[in-house]
Design a protein that fits this description.
Strands 1-5-4-3-2 form a five-stranded antiparallel β-sheet. The longest helix is centred in the last third of the chain and has 18 residues, at about 110-125. About 45% of the residues lie in helices and about 25% in strands. It is built from five helices and five strands, in the order βαβαβαββαα. It is of the alpha+beta class.
Length: about 130
């Protein structure tokens, strides 16, 4: 089983992020932050040729339920969506919540993880 769901897109990195952010808000998710790895590396004197941005996304209600179930689940939060460039092509990739939650062996959260994963995959499909 793959730990990620990835699609290729013709859109620019900025367009993808704008579309994802908009579609996430429609399903009560928000972007908590965006890590720009190219920029982070540059500040450390490391050259990285491609764009790579990691979106930290969260649904506060689901996150609270997960933390109420097990505070250690916080180590798997928030959900992450990568938007990146590889060999001149652009991609959107989701770390699958179902796979991440499987390592926690918390059966209470399995259905929640599946529901969240389905919603995030739909956002990605509609953003590509």
């Amino acid at each position: 089983m793959s730990f990620n769901y990835t699609v290729k897109t013709q859109k620019s990195i900025d367009e993808i992020i704008q579309d994802i952010t908009s579609k996430l808000s429609e399903i009560q998710f928000g972007v908590l932050g965006i890590l720009d790895f190219k920029e982070i590396f540059a500040k450390k004197g490391i050259e990285y040729p491609n764009q790579y941005k990691l979106l930290e996304v969260c649904n506060p209600i689901a996150a609270k339920q997960a933390l109420d179930s097990d505070p250690n689940i916080g180590l798997l939060l928030p959900c992450t969506i990568a938007v990146y460039e590889k060999e001149g092509e652009h991609y959107i990739s989701l770390a699958k919540p179902t796979v991440l939650l499987a390592v926690a062996s918390n059966t209470e959260l399995e259905s929640m993880g599946k529901e969240i994963e389905e919603k995030l995959i739909e956002v990605i499909k509609n953003s590509k």
